[in-house]
Amino acid sequence: MSAGDAVDERAEGGATVIAIDGPAGSGKSSVARAVARELGFQFLDTGAAYRALTWLILERGGDTDDEATVLASLGALDTLELTIDASGQRVAIAGHDVTEAIRTERISAAVAGVARTLPAREAVNVRFRAIIAAADPGIVAEGRDITTVVAPDADVRVLLTADEAVRIRRRFGDVGGDEQQVGARLSARDASDSRVIDFLHAADGVTVVDSTDLTFDETVDAIVRLATEERHD
Ligand SMILES: Nc1ncnc2c1ncn2[C@@H]1O[C@H](COP(=O)(O)OP(=O)(O)OP(=O)(O)O)[C@@H](O)[C@H]1O
Ligand SMILES: Nc1ccn([C@@H]2O[C@H](COP(=O)(O)O)[C@@H](O)[C@H]2O)c(=O)n1
């Protein structure tokens, strides 16, 4: 029996939900996607919603540090398209395909203004919870507040982490450029995000997976194992 079959059996009474939080560069999106693929589950990248709103505000010439501007953008969430296919993601907002555009440093640098606006968090969370509730046969959702706010009742709750220096090295491997600058940006985003939500400490019942000394595949296996063990409990 494959890991996917084993977890699917558990899902007979409802979809299996795996929630993963962690700091920037900890591997949330790449590892969560690989876990979802392995289990035949859907995949929800919640950061993509914050990034898409940020893209729209900047596209309209707005400033994400201006709360009124962020609030005025929330109506556009009705137009947000987030695919939950683990084999490939498409993100669109207000009719624009922003799949690639939301990954730029310009968006990463401006997203904090959206993330700290509580009505924005509440609005995207309504959307995330609806997606999770409709999941079939299961879903891996990743972000900063999935284990604590969005899906605190998830079947498997993981805080995925790694030493900051390792996360910076991995991110530098992805984006290149000046390693010091890459590190400074990553640290600044964590500092700003952690003022809004605590994703640096595991809440009760959340399992820490520290990938500092793990390969990518070992990290994926560790989370798949947690999901499979949960099914046998
Ligand atoms: N255990 C691991 N060993 C080696 N590389 C890893 C491991 N886990 C993740 N990576 C790599 O680290 C990089 C960062 O991962 P990823 O972009 O998934 O992080 P993230 O937590 O989603 O970041 P962010 O929150 O900034 O979007 C990717 O290149 C990924 O392949
Ligand atoms: N659950 C979440 C997810 C994301 N954010 C904010 O969005 C930014 C981008 O997220 P990535 O995972 O794509 O890097 C992130 O820096 C947070 O500001 C959030 O607040 N909650």
Automatic annotation (TrEMBL):
GO molecular function terms attached to this record: ATP binding; CMP kinase activity; dCMP kinase activity
Entries under InterPro entries matching the protein: Cytidylate_kin, Cytidylate_kinase_dom, P-loop_NTPase
Compartments reported by the entry: Cytoplasm
Residues given in the record as ATP binding sites: G22, P23, A24, G25, S26, G27, K28, S29, S30
Gene3D superfamilies linked: P-loop containing nucleotide triphosphate hydrolases
Keyword field contains Cytoplasm: yes
Biological process according to GO: pyrimidine nucleotide metabolic process
Main location: cytoplasm
Gene Ontology cellular component annotations, sorted alphabetically: cytoplasm
EC number(s) given by UniProt: 2.7.4.25
UniProt keyword list: ATP-binding, Cytoplasm, Kinase, Nucleotide-binding, Transferase
Catalytic activity as recorded in UniProt: dCMP + ATP = dCDP + ADP; CMP + ATP = CDP + ADP
Domain Cytidylate kinase: from-to ranges: 18-228
Keyword Nucleus tagged: no
HAMAP family: Cytidyl_kinase_type1
Family to which the UniProt record says this protein belongs: Belongs to the cytidylate kinase family. Type 1 subfamily.
Protein name: Cytidylate kinase
Species the sequence originates in: Agrococcus carbonis
